Amino acid sequence: MSKKEQIQQEIKQSLKEKNELKTSVLRLLLTAFSNKEIELKKKEAGLNEEEEQQVLKSEMKKRRKSIEAYEKARRQDLADKEKKELKILESYDNGDQQNKAENS
User: Fold this and answer.
1) DSSP state of 31
2) Dihedral angle at the C-alpha atoms of 14, 18, 23, 24, nearest 10 degrees?
3) pLDDT at residue 70 above 90?
4) How many CB atoms lie within 10 A of CB 88?
5) Among candidates 82, 81, 91, 80, which has minimal Cα distance to 64?
6) In the chain, what are the domains?
């Protein structure tokens, strides 16, 4: 199962659980996948695992930059929200999980 399919299933689950933050983050990630498919002209074939991972890393990087900017602006409430979103995205990061397993 591709990341995109997994995320689609998890959106359904988070909707049932009424987890608005997770639903929102996953919808944004799904949209990012779709935008990348359009950019690469792969709408029919879909993204491969490496391309999905690149999109995920990009979204995580955006959250990290936002956290830094909000903390500099002393907007801890917004920084905390971004940290929660980042944590959700990190749960889908294969590279991070592999690194953790290798370091253990």
Assistant:
1) H
2) -170
3) yes
4) 18
5) 82
6) 3-93 (1.10.1510.10)
**pLDDT of amino acid 95:** 57
Whether residue 68 is predicted with pLDDT greater than 60 in this model: the reply is yes
CA distances in angstroms from 15 to 22, 32, 48, listed in the order given:
9, 19, 27
By CB atoms closer than 10 A (0-12, 13-18, 19+), residue 96 is middle
pTM, entire model: 0.78
Is residue 100 pLDDT above 80, yes or no?
no
List the structure tokens of 58. 């990009």
Q: Token pair for residue 55? A: 């999109």
**DSSP state letter for 17:** T
